[in-house]
Amino acid sequence: MPTPEPSHRAALRAGGWAEGDVRRYEQLLQYRSRWGAANLDRDERRFLRSAEAALSRYRPTAAPAIGAGLVDAPQGCFVALDFETADQGRDSACSIALVRVEGRQIVRREHHLIRPPRRTFLFTSIHGIGWSQVADAPSFAELWPQLAACLEGAQFIAAHNASFDAGVLRACCAQAGLRPPAQPFVCTVQVARQAWNLRPTKLPDVCRHLGLPLRHHDALSDAEACAGIVLAAGQGVTAGLARSR
Predict the structure, then answer these.
(1) CATH class of the domain at 74-243
(2) Is 217 within 8 Å of 84 (Cβ atoms)?
(3) Rounded CA gap, 202 and 45, in Å?
């Protein structure tokens, strides 16, 4: 269960929040993580939104602090990421998964439905998600503290067709008034081409080649597959691609 970072507490206190309100934010954040936003009442969800909006003002660098340098990152630390979107707008993320790898081991998984800014769903036939499933889900802004904690200290973010996921991440951050993370993206399409000269390189093709399990367009399964591709390719290939971006 995630706990708000001490820097979050300090930022709220520096912004003039009372100790009782800071404690309430911590309690509600943990409750939402365990039981889901649907089990919070309207006032509680509004309170969390106001706290997270305040954090974005009081801590403009609340996104993962990558500028400290890779020497502080856990050995071989990266995060594989996958989004599913509701419509053609890059800000319409309706599902996200992050898989954190440290020292060649998966140490954390995050998988969430997201309430997009519009009710329009054009891609339900692809990923099986519709408005009724996300109407009570948290917004991207509400999820951000938890997502940022998973990304913190990672050397790079891996995604299949990374330009798409990077664009969704930037658009969702912009829509929420957040600074996007600073890590470079590594595209596992390019990883597969460099490591194994593989064509075609759609995610099911690469997973079939490597014998990786996949439920395509399930965000967590896709992200785990991306992590598997990076691990199979080795550090030399991915490090070169990360530096080139």
Answers:
(1) alpha beta
(2) yes
(3) 39
Between CA 166 and CA 173 the distance in angstroms is 11
pLDDT at res. 9: 66
* Distance from C-alpha of 136 to C-alpha of 138, rounded to nearest angstrom: 7
State the pTM of this model: 0.69
Domain boundaries, the chain: 6-58, 74-243
What tokens does 177 get? 């008034």
Q: Dihedrals φ, ψ of 162, to 5°?
A: -60, -25
Higher pLDDT, 41 or 209: 209
User: 198: buried, middle or exposed (CB in 10 Å: 19+, 13-18, 0-12)?
Assistant: middle
174: amino acid identity, one letter: A
Instruction: Provide CB contacts within 8 A for 216, sequence distance 6+.
Output: 203, 204, 222
Phi, psi of 181 (to 5 degrees): -65, 155
**b or e along 127-149 (b: 16 or more beta carbons within 10 Å of the residue's beta carbon)?**
bebeeeebeebbbbbbbbbbbbb
Give which of 200, 181, 182, 201 is closest to 191, Cα–Cα. Answer: 201
Q: What is the pLDDT of residues 204-229, one digit of tens each?
A: 999 999 999 999 999 999 999 999 99
